[in-house]
Amino acid sequence: MIDGDPGLWLEDLHGEEALAWVRERNAETAERLTTAPGFAALAAELREVLDDEGRIPYVRRRGKHLYNFWQDAAHVRGVWRRTGLEEYRRDRPAWETVLDLDALAAAEGEDWVWAGAEVLRPGHRHALVLLSRAGSDAVTVREFDLEALRFVEDGFQVAEAKTSIGWIDADHVYIGADLGPRSLTASGYPRTVRRWRRGTPLADAELVFEAAPEDLSASGWCDPSEDYRRHFVSLQRDFWHRELFLLADGDRPVKVDVPDDAEKYVHRQWLMVVPKTPWAGHPAGSLLAFDFESYLGGEREPAAVLFTPDGATALAGHFWTRNHLIVKSLHHVTTRIEVLTPADGPWTRRPLAEVPALATATVHATDPHESDEYFLDVSGFVQPPTLFRGEAGGATEVVKRASALFDTEGLSVRQHFATSADGTRVPFFVVGPDRDAPGPTLLYGYGGFEVTLTPGYDAVTGRAWLARGGTYVVAGIRGGGEYGPGWHHAALKADRERAFEDFAAVARHLVDLKITTPGLLGIEGRSNGGLLMGAVTVRYPHLFGAVVIGFPLLDLMRFHLLLAGASWTAEYGNPEDPADRPHLEALSPYHGFRADRAYPPILIVTATSDDRVHPGHARKAAARLKELGHRVLFHETTAGGHAGSADNEQAARVEALTHTFLWHHLRGEA
């Protein structure tokens, strides 16, 4: 099947035959799940959760305004709106509508989905608004006047593409866009950086930088910080290797000589570096600060070593306000936060806030170019979010508390460690009731791209799963970032098997703890987590009672030929490379499904509009499983892109399908 793939016709995204197959599979799934007792009620209940007015409206400051994008029952597509700080402190703030997407979509007859906006500094008069059709990664760009509250006639406009754009000043932007042949990389991202002047054709924009066709992407930006205004270009060689250039002396790119696999950027006078492999005596996952001008002059000794990891603690993020640095770390996947202040000697540091055990804090620095203001969001599996506001170095106040959206009575949160095949301890969280006997359990995993899974309040899972008596488990397997870069590197490419072994070890340990049994254990993952689900189903089908595979990567022999797939070869390997091809064939779930194996029931979910992970992966896997005689259901939404939903109604329906499927197979009820 490697050389002659019988499922290739299902990669024809909008082909008549492929879409007819999708409609047939969707109808089959709807017949099985949407007619089940309780489905309609569950979908309605989850829609209420997603539309709940007690959710925290998270904001971003631009000038005197706090901006928020909001969706609810009255604003299905959403509304971009703003208010002031004093008003925001109120339980029910008064909001000014900036842009109503429902009205815009109706007026233009388009399926618009919000994709963000960039506001011009200083002055905050204009914004570049990004709109996606049906939730795809590709966007259209339009300039918007934030005083007149309308699109700028003859302003900056860019047709649909995976565009990179950012302000230089009121009349110029840096842009990477689809300008025709040879303007995009093999992954479909911009290959050039151009300086575009207002009122001139995009095709005539001045070329500033050009990447090679085999590179991932190139982008440019202007740092607008007062007294530190600089211009930069980033060349993304692949997913894990990036070069940073300072544009100097008439756009001459000067490479910032930091390892390509390191995270690096400049804030005011500081060059910040997080090496991903050991560098100059500093371990991977350290946080280093250099004086930028001195570094360009050849100085390589850091002005400050701000974080050094150990076996239990990893850097989880760092966020600048104008004059302070907020550092977030994880100790066995529980959050710690400090605020650091630059000084001539050692930087001063103090705890920013106490984060409860088995909880997570997320920092939002609202405008690091102009303010020391920050917002701190704290939540846990059974703890609704609380939003704090402060200014680094000053006091902190509670400004918002979210509603409790599911009953947590009798639920506990515990952390355990499983032992993987090679002896590695793998952390996982268990949320659920204390039971005398095993019960229905849902195990979630991801295990890739250094993504860290931490405790957080998920009202949909709470209402659809926990409130109905289920136990929920989140596994921090290798491939993720729970213990820093080394945890990620341990499951790269040919070592991907370790992520699968870690997940299986957690599943076995749940049985050993008498939390569940294989027949009562469901598993779920999306995107790279969908690859994980497919792989563990192939290898360990006896460990699970039901499997949900969402928006997945499943064909590891052709992923590099489909949409953005070429950008992931640094994570998985390259099928065109003879050195990588054997392990990719061995890891590929699509090629591993067999007729003579007994697999648990499987639900595969994808979206036609997903222009990141091609829906052909999901289609082909479902078709092959069905052909081999296995129990598989398939559901493909039209809109929603890689997120799988363009609005709350669609999100509620997909979640209702998922949980109806799981309850039916894990407890014999629908």
Q: Uncertain segments of ≥5 residues (pLDDT<50)? A: none
What is the CATH level 1 assignment of the domain at 8-48 and 405-667? Alpha Beta
Query: Per DSSP, what share of the residues sits in E-state strands of 2 or more residues?
Result: 25-35%
Form type: globular
- How far do the termini sit from each other? 37 Å
Q: Determine the fraction of residues in helical runs and give it as a percent range.
A: 10-25%
Number of strands: 37
CATH topology of the domain at 8-48 and 405-667: Rossmann fold
- Please state the oligomeric state of the protein chains shown: single chain
Strands of the biggest beta sheet: in what spatial order? 30-31-33-32-34-35-36-37
Class based on secondary structure composition and strand pairing: alpha+beta
The CATH homologous superfamily of the domain at 8-48 and 405-667 is called Alpha/Beta hydrolase fold, catalytic domain
Helical element count? 14
Biggest sheet statistics: 8 strands, mixed
CATH architecture of the domain at 8-48 and 405-667: 3-Layer(aba) Sandwich
Q: What is the residue-averaged pLDDT?
A: 96
Give me the Rg, rounded: 25 Å
